[in-house]
């Protein structure tokens, strides 16, 4: 067996000097003196380190045939001894070898050239006739070794036991010309030992959603796994899209995912002892594998911690855990700042590197609602927008439990305390940039942010567009300041939802009978509802929603519009007072404002992947026209731009090279509510930066 210790010994220097181990391999061909500080052993400022790439000939390009694979995970971690592919509990192993199931007539839906550039692949390789064969799993890239990863997870707060890669397959790890290590994997390539009752397939609909959002989140500047390719086929599987008994044939589709690693919190839960629900991890009691996995992850992806604390494993494990907590806090803070919900924040969907991972029923908010739930299966709102930070913290606590055989809980507990502090620091740091508060960090800034969110909540305003428009308000003292304030107010009011949509949005998650029963239960037996995953605060909010619905019965559209105007007038006065403190006496207001606008527009996106935009692209793709998927990808690659040139998407269209459309349709334009979707054309007649048209309000995401 290749243990981490064996790997280190194998690569030991023969001349007596130390060589830095980076990602389980040599840190370049240079020798490193043992008395050099550990900081000099680091290969880059990236969160993962580099390996020396092979020597390329002058002008030599990477091709599908010559990618440099170095599949360290399969060398460093135990592999299942069972060779046959059937559903089972996998004990004593982190991976099981599997093979992709071929598909019929694979066809490229979309390729992210920017993501594939991480593998050094030029665009000429992306247009090869056999490209779809390689990225559907029909052919394997030379050097690839396919395997499925074993992990467990807490799902909706309960330990679910073994889960694993039920539809995902590790392909290997590619070392690019910069020496960066990138794991690549298929999603939707067929059955594995972890497929349970499923078929190991993904469909066009869900694959397009994951492909587009992976790239959208990356281009927003949020840590995430990447999506390189989306390939569909003529094979179909049956799916009950709305869980109503109406089955539908959908095309088998495979995406290529890219990340330094896909190791997750749940990877460490395979060692979990049996809990009150009678479930346990498949490798319970196998502490030696837990230590092996910890050492592999730290030495490979946290080399600075490995180098600094090799002689003190307890300190090493603590520093590793602390860094995971801090990265997770920063990641979820960034989600909150763009109004994005993951939807399924189980421990098996939490990356050990603090990356956004596993895109399912996610959603960007349109109308702001702190209780926004994007997952139709989340009846109690466990994974709602407002709950995401505390759920991520809860998941970090479960990670501490998972590694407690290596480092006691009392030792990791201080790191947990850092989560809230790091979250607030990251959240307010980003929010201040979104509001253009650059000169001073004042105590009232927190109240300003909260009041803005409260005003959006009270008026049903669009999250993305409301933030974006704030840069249109110049600093006090600027020319036409009051005229600009009036324009911004009119725009903010135009972004408020209709009375009917507001009524729908205020409805409680729980039916009245269920809410009444739970309220009585809490009154008679305080604390009992906590065993159902609820709190007294949750019930109070549900009751407030029910009361709000009653109140709104007497509202008219005119009354709501009037109250919206008043609310935004009040907030803008508060905002302008705060902006006044950004301007020091004698300062160049024009220069300050230019810097402020530049900062705000690089932190408040103009384009996000709204559900209706994704659904329109999916609808066209299901008809065989992939042009809109590619157009949306191009828009999402430039989320902070004022406009996006989509002309070249016409010539890149595949398979419909002669698709006719207006190259300017859907690019940057003032938000309009008059847009509607034409089901007979691939041309969107809405703008990509508009709030949802009427047909898209309440769109169900599956």
UniProtKB/TrEMBL annotation:
Residue span of region Disordered: 651-702
Biased composition regions of type Low complexity, renumbered to the chain: 668-682
InterPro entries: SelO (IPR003846)
GO MF term set: ATP binding; metal ion binding; nucleotidyltransferase activity
Cofactor: Mg(2+)
Keyword terms: ATP-binding, Magnesium, Metal-binding, Nucleotide-binding, Nucleotidyltransferase, Transferase
Annotated family: Belongs to the SELO family.
PANTHER family referenced in this protein's UniProt entry, alphabetically: PROTEIN ADENYLYLTRANSFERASE SELO, MITOCHONDRIAL (PTHR12153:SF15), SELENOPROTEIN O (PTHR12153)
Name of the protein in its database record: Selenoprotein O
């Amino acid at each position: 067996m290749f243990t981490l210790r064996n790997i280190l010994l194998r690569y030991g220097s023969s001349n007596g000097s130390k060589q830095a181990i980076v990602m389980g391999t040599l840190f370049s061909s240079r020798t490193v003196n043992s008395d050099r500080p550990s900081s000099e052993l680091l290969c880059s400022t990236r969160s993962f380190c580099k390996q020396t790439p092979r020597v390329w000939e002058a002008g030599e390009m990477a091709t599908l045939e010559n990618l440099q694979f170095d599949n360290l995970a399969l060398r460093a971690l135990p592999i299942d001894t069972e060779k046959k592919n059937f559903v089972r509990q996998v004990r004593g192993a982190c991976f099981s070898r599997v093979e992709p199931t071929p598909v019929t007539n694979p066809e490229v839906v979309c390729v992210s050239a920017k993501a594939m550039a991480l593998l050094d692949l030029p665009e000429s390789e992306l247009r090869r006739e056999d490209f779809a064969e390689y990225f559907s799993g029909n052919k394997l890239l030379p050097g690839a070794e396919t395997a499925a990863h074993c992990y467990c997870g807490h799902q909706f707060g309960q330990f679910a036991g073994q889960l694993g890669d039920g539809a995902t397959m590790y392909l290997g790890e590619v070392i690019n010309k910069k020496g960066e290590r990138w794991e690549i994997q298929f999603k939707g390539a067929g059955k594995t030992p972890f497929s349970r009752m499923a078929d190991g397939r993904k469909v066009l609909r869900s694959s397009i959603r994951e492909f587009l959002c992976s790239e959208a989140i990356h281009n927003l500047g949020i840590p995430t796994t990447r999506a390189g390719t989306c390939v569909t086929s003529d094979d179909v599987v049956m799916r009950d899209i709305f869980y109503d008994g109406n089955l539908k044939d959908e095309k088998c589709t495979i995406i290529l995912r890219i990340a330094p690693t896909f190791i997750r919190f749940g990877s460490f839960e395979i060692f979990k002892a049996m809990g009150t629900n009678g479930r346990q991890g498949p490798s319970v009691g196998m502490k030696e594998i837990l230590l092996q996995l910890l050492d592999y992850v730290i030495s490979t992806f946290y080399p600075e911690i490995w180098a600094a604390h090799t002689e003190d494993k307890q300190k090493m494990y603590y520093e590793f855990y602390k860094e995971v907590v801090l990265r997770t806090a920063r990641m979820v803070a960034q989600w909150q700042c763009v109004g994005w919900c993951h939807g399924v924040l189980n421990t098996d969907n939490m990356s050990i590197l603090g990356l956004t991972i596993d895109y399912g029923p996610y959603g960007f908010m349109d109308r702001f609602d702190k209780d926004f739930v994007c997952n139709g299966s989340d009846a109690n709102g466990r994974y709602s927008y407002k709950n995401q930070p505390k759920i991520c913290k809860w998941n970090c606590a479960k990670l501490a439990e998972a590694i407690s055989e290596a480092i006691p809980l009392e030792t990791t507990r201080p790191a947990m305390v850092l989560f809230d502090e790091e979250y607030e620091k990251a959240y307010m740091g980003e929010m201040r940039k979104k509001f253009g508060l650059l000169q001073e960090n004042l105590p009232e800034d927190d109240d300003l942010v909260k009041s803005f969110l409260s005003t959006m909540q009270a008026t049903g305003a669009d999250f993305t567009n409301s933030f974006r428009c704030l840069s249109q308000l110049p600093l006090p003292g600027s020319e036409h300041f009051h005229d600009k304030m009036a324009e911004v107010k009119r725009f903010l009011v135009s972004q408020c939802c209709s009375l009917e949509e507001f009524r729908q949005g205020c409805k409680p998650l729980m039916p009245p009978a269920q809410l009444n029963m739970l309220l009585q239960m809490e009154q008679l037996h305080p604390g009992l509802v906590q065993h159902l995953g609820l709190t007294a605060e949750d019930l109070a909010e549900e009751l407030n929603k029910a009361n709000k619905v009653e109140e709104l019965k007497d509202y008219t559209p005119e009354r709501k519009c009037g109250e919206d105007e008043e609310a935004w007038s009040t907030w803008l006065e508060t905002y302008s007072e705060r902006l006044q403190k950004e301007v020091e006496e004698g300062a160049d207001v024009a220069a300050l404002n230019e810097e402020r606008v530049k900062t705000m527009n690089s932190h408040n996106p103009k384009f996000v992947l709204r559900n209706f935009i994704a659904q329109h692209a999916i609808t066209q793709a299901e008809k065989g026209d992939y042009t809109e998927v590619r157009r949306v990808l191009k828009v999402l690659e430039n989320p902070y731009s004022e406009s996006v040139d989509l002309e070249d998407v016409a010539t890149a269209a595949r398979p419909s090279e002669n698709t006719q459309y207006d190259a300017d349709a859907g690019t940057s334009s003032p938000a309009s509510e008059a847009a509607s979707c034409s089901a007979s054309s691939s041309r969107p007649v809405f703008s990509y930066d508009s709030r949802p048209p009427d047909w898209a309000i309440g769109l169900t995401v599956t």
